[in-house]
Amino acid sequence: MIIVLKNNATPEQINHICEKVKELGLTPQVSRGVERTIIGVIGEEEKLRAKPLEAFPGVDSVVPILRPYKLASREFKPEPTVFEMGNGVKVGGKKIIVMAGPCAVEGRDMLFRIATQVKKAGADFLRGGAFKPRTSPYSFQGLGEEGLKYLREVADEVGLLVVTEIMDSRHVDLVSEYADMLQIGARNMQNFELLKEVGLCKKPVLLKRGLSSTIKELLLSAEYLLSRGNFKVMLCERGIRTFETATRNTVDINAVPVLKEETHLPVLIDPSHGTGKRSYVGPVARAAVAVGADGLMIEVHDNPEEARSDGEQSLLPSGFEQLMKELRPIAHAVGRDI
Amino acid sequence: MIIVLKNNATPEQINHICEKVKELGLTPQVSRGVERTIIGVIGEEEKLRAKPLEAFPGVDSVVPILRPYKLASREFKPEPTVFEMGNGVKVGGKKIIVMAGPCAVEGRDMLFRIATQVKKAGADFLRGGAFKPRTSPYSFQGLGEEGLKYLREVADEVGLLVVTEIMDSRHVDLVSEYADMLQIGARNMQNFELLKEVGLCKKPVLLKRGLSSTIKELLLSAEYLLSRGNFKVMLCERGIRTFETATRNTVDINAVPVLKEETHLPVLIDPSHGTGKRSYVGPVARAAVAVGADGLMIEVHDNPEEARSDGEQSLLPSGFEQLMKELRPIAHAVGRDI
Amino acid sequence: MIIVLKNNATPEQINHICEKVKELGLTPQVSRGVERTIIGVIGEEEKLRAKPLEAFPGVDSVVPILRPYKLASREFKPEPTVFEMGNGVKVGGKKIIVMAGPCAVEGRDMLFRIATQVKKAGADFLRGGAFKPRTSPYSFQGLGEEGLKYLREVADEVGLLVVTEIMDSRHVDLVSEYADMLQIGARNMQNFELLKEVGLCKKPVLLKRGLSSTIKELLLSAEYLLSRGNFKVMLCERGIRTFETATRNTVDINAVPVLKEETHLPVLIDPSHGTGKRSYVGPVARAAVAVGADGLMIEVHDNPEEARSDGEQSLLPSGFEQLMKELRPIAHAVGRDI
Amino acid sequence: MIIVLKNNATPEQINHICEKVKELGLTPQVSRGVERTIIGVIGEEEKLRAKPLEAFPGVDSVVPILRPYKLASREFKPEPTVFEMGNGVKVGGKKIIVMAGPCAVEGRDMLFRIATQVKKAGADFLRGGAFKPRTSPYSFQGLGEEGLKYLREVADEVGLLVVTEIMDSRHVDLVSEYADMLQIGARNMQNFELLKEVGLCKKPVLLKRGLSSTIKELLLSAEYLLSRGNFKVMLCERGIRTFETATRNTVDINAVPVLKEETHLPVLIDPSHGTGKRSYVGPVARAAVAVGADGLMIEVHDNPEEARSDGEQSLLPSGFEQLMKELRPIAHAVGRDI
User: Fold this and answer.
1) Which terminus of chain B is more solvent-facing, meaning fewer CB atoms within 10 Å of its CB: N or C?
2) Does pTM top 0.90 for this prediction?
3) Which residue in chain C is spatially nearest to B245 when comparing CA positions?
4) Which value does ipTM take for this structure?
5) Which domains, from first to last, does chain C contain?
6) D136-179 pLDDT per residue, tens
7) Contact B29/D at CB under 8 A
8) CA nearest B219 in A: which residue?
9) Given CB atoms, is D42 within the 8 Å cutoff of chain B?
């Protein structure tokens, strides 16, 4: 931690800060520059983080040196995290995993038809929302437990894993009963009570980045999960909010190499939400494989005109099959399978 | 709803869309322009909103005409909403209400000292977090129910109302027992399960705008509350996330006149979170009064150096008292009291 | 300057960096912390800024301590800059200056009518574009020199000063001949060749903040002017680009107290471009006065329906007169005149 | 163009608007919906664009239907633009073109060394700035004409084309004399006087997207060039400004499929400025090839520690050579060469 002082900071103010630092068991080092004095603090930075140093008289700014996350960092665990799902699927391994299915579970039949086709095309997980976060209270809110049942039944029949969103701390047991992986959506990335509950359960988690969350904040939300004992966490870049309105969101493709340097956790890209338009999903999925993502999540619907949400960004099953074929040579070109 | 067609849309595609529109009991009106054909749809737009029209072949884009919120709109209720709190305080009336207190409740003594002083300076509500949303799992998470008790006791002793944050759908009864107004924080503005629960209770609500939520999304979140029967809602602009890093957030001062046109709900500004730095709080509070806000929420701490959160943006009690004095002539200049 | 090393930086890498620092005549101070080593550099930081320290092996990040601008800073000149215009108008003094007029000069008659009315209502400057920056090549591009002539004639007749935009380094002499103050628009804030030319002339300058420029970048652009000898610079906050689409731009009201702390230069707010809608201009102008701005720039047109640009955000002369009346008590409440 | 009326618009207001529309030679079509009346306008939308319709009484909002750019659109020219450079290099063809070299031309020797190596690795263009746009007036501003000479000489010797930035309308002849392609930088994307001058010359242009420019604005800036007769335009996505600070900019990977749909102009990605850090350049370059970009621009320096700008994001020549090898199989996987 570096404490930068104002150019008119008094000796008394400097002493006062040094005393506080020492009280915490840390060592202050004062460097008097030509134009500014700075105080470097040696020791566990965490102790100091809790102090509002910027509130001290004479302080201009405070610069933390260490990452605020620990368990999620590469420094804590240099090798990439790989975890096995029940049926032999490995998350974070050489094979890029693919999650596909409708935005929302609308019924058993449609789910079965779509699941059959995405399985055939090479998907590993069936996705589908039973609890839907909708901006408007008047939009379809999902089938709830009924939807969870369909997901489990269909996935078992077809031979897929289930990933589905959990929106409320009260639903952890319920969703865990049916799903293989719990998805925490973008709007809940900083729903800390939900993170705490999910951190205590043993289910693998797909943690989506918030619409305007920094990578650091995403890793701190992951830290909520890890620090409660759940290390089976996959991160998801699903597009951030920017000034650009030509697409629903802006996929932050840079986030993949940044995350690969900062954390050992696997990273997935969701080009469906990331673009919001069917014709953009394919190109961005190709980019995701090339940049080094460990997984893809893609919305597929066999009758987008009647979809109860996100029809405009869903691929047709035939389009999904075609995309999977296009992705394979790119995966091989970067030393991966899909 | 206006459906804009691609310039190469076929007559079959146009017919197909018109048929779907009619199936919903709506009337399509086709206008063939020089360069484009558009279809205007007359009737209840809500029916059409659920359809993913952009997924239809031949469609270029879809332009909604009506606001997606109803109960929150000025068209639904032209006159401003004013609601009374227990002790004669009116929210949304001529008097601008002031909420003040520490970021977090750290103990009973500090709360009492601060409450006494903000009451004396003219505050109406005591603010203070018992449940704290913290970006890092290693930061102070609040005193929980103990904090709620202190808030209630101290507020009653001093003669203030209590506003405090609720973070979880499981806590509605608990927090309602102690608080006069429930605050839904920026990170939970789209925690829809929480909105649903709070919508069902009768407590007044302070709904904070999310860090990167549009004004339209804020009003749709309010609509979750209103559509469940809770109309005692005050909206809060607390700064949005932008590219600027000189301040913690960017107060969207424009939001006040926009909200005043779009909705009947009262609007409060939080210059403490909106700026993140003590010396900026006063000027922005002055701007808030001048622009037409109905309330202010200001963090006050009597020992910011020891504050367990947000010390750098908290006013000293003396600074708060001074600010209240500065605000009065501005309030009078715009025909208000404070 | 603080150089933060990677946690696996080798002694050779550290030595190598220290050698480079010494070569520049600066003094490195190595602090070995529990988890990280950092190198503080004492001496003229400017010398080091030119070095791409992040490219050195072993370096994790580089943290500048000093502001990169000098002449624009409060540390260089603690007292506020006040400069006199020809006719007794002082920029940066107790009186808040007001610039008003049409977006573009469309003709002599309209300019005269509007100028007469804004003068009567209390404006100090006549604004109006002769060279117009237009997003589309098919939009009205301004009257050029003819527009400049009208501005000068009308302003002299009515008793106002002229502020008008300069868009090209080749036009400095031309525009200087007619205008009292040169406006550098948001899109040209980082047109460095233009800044260099304007820095060499003696005309007062109104420097508008770019749509997505940070406050630091605004001050560095001002530094281009100051470092070439032109100290008569007023800064303008005119709204930044954010994700919010309810308004044309988002006025960064926080920028005023930030700039007041960071720089001695006077600050003006442009609520017309900052909001983009007539009905929002008044409330934000009131906020601007309350927050401490030294000036306002407001678009006024007496026939907005026929305006060749920005008609939707222009006040009618009667609306402007009314606004000026509303602003006076607020100005007095904050110890200013208008 | 759709004109949406307020729900309380009067018949007189509606008539007034219809009259104005007819005066322009256009045909208004009034649709009275249950909740709103809208006016569709048939005819050349461009005529109406110049009118500030939102300033008319009774108007709630105005929705343009057509793209504001014409010559740059796919509707105007459905097939992709391909143009030949002097030496057989085709821009926009099957082969992805690569521009590489130092950020700034610092001297003839370094330029020659780097050019030799990037040529060997497969680059088509030598990049390097002779005029440098620098945020701070105290940073290295480029060698000017001397730098241009070195570029020309070295490129001819080595067998590369020259692309270099032009920053000022006065330099068109000078830079055109030396360069094969003129680069308009992000900060000048809306320097309309520069666009006009460059539009009149016959040199191919690389037009970089502004830091916070929408795709629509980028295409309108291209329209400035095309409408003056210069159709040899390549667009460049170089990262936009967002709230994320982990990278210098955020590469908008979505922009490639959007641009491919909207325009016939070829698209290049600059992962060096787009990420700002050497270790991220490779992954994002791979994504650029996979997503469908027609070109890449990459900064290469053989002594980044001594680079006078952007050393931290420059690849070493060996790193560039390695990257080119990695890109080839990805290019083949998407049906391209590089």
Assistant:
1) C
2) yes
3) C214
4) 0.94
5) 2-63 (3.30.70.1140), 83-333 (3.20.20.70)
6) 888 888 999 999 999 999 999 999 999 999 999 999 999 999 99
7) yes
8) A136
9) yes
